[in-house]
Design brief:
The complex is a heterodimer. By secondary structure, chain A is α/β, with parallel strands linked by helices. Chain A is built from twelve helices and seven strands. Classes of the chains: A alpha/beta, B alpha+beta.
Chain lengths: 341, 99
Amino acid sequence: MKCMCSIIPSNVLKRFARDKKLSASSRRRFAEAAAHETHWRKLRELNAAAFARAQLTLSAGESISAVPAVTVFDCATGTALPGSPVPNPGASSDPTAKRTFVETTAVAKFYKTLFGRNSIDNLGMTLQSSVHYGVKYNNAYWNGSQMVYGDGDSNIFVDFTKARDVIGHELTHGVTQYTAQLAYADEPGGLNESMSDVFGSMFRQWRSNQTVNQADWLIGKEIMGPAALARGYTCLRDMANPAAQHCLAPQPTHYSQYRAGMDPHSSSGIPNLAFCRAAMTIGGKSWIVAGRIWYKALTGFGPSPNLSMAKFAARTRSIARATRKTAVITAINKAWQSVGL
Amino acid sequence: MSRISIERLGGLAGLGAPGVRMVSRGKMELEALAQHERDALESLFARAKAPPGDARASLARDAFRYRITRPRGKGEEAVEVAESEVPAGLLGCIVDELT
């Protein structure tokens, strides 16, 4: 299957459907494609994920890669994915491409070394990223198959690959997709976003070998542009103080503030704070105890698309009890209690 | 003349959520769009009247979505769509601002 990411606008499909220079059967197919566009787009996304898996399971004579390949593509300010392949990105003269390769490789090592996970799907899938997406594009995202990074407008935001936690955040959306499959709305949506902030922040701390006290717990500190900094916005979010004035996107700090339909980037503040408090109370490095508990809670229970925050908290409490360490059990319990769960 | 407004929502920063200190929006006259883009816009509003699909089906995370609003009778109507569906001419009128 080729061209997994090409999109033919509906108006073009309809124009082809009316083009008498094409055969009747071709015109009928274009008309049908336009009519089923919504369903086709959803299927395209699902097929992309399934195809990636099929490539691994159906390829004859090939074994699962022990170390995932890391590829980088250059969109050159366009929006067609994936863009042009960057040859040997680890040695690229483009600092964005090189940094993306280095940090994505590091995220793979983070998951493998700390959690025994072989890439996003635990089957060594290739980690694909596209950089220089769009013009002054103030965003980064996971599209269901790969990561996509904008350059920022150099005013509110700078190059989104400059933040290790952003790279870890986007990759973790892939991990969630292949494990708990948390939906992207309501409480599971908040948990989905929180998992990405938690493991993104943990990755950033791990890269600098920081303890929980050395960490600043800020999300997106390195992508804030001069205009944002001049206004006193030092980060997107603050896991230690979600409602802080220095956040571009302040969040609730207690479950009593949660409302159904909240943007997942808002409601994630509640479980973010729980993780931060648990890790700070336990002390040391966040990935040793708290990180492992959160990883098991995310990946150890199968698909849970409608998981509530309370049920996720219960999982972490259960995993903590299995450690038989009173300090850990108490830290996890009190962290959740402090945010109302 | 018919004025269209567009607001960019979601993304890594969660634009559009209460308290977010950044807005991303624009307005333009419908007539300023090329005909094929006006047709595309019309298709979006027409499709919005159909039964909604499962909003949870998309696997994209941190992606932008766009709310497009236009006058309708004495009021207005709005649709929310993915970035790939927004006419380029309309995307071009959006300005990001800190609040």
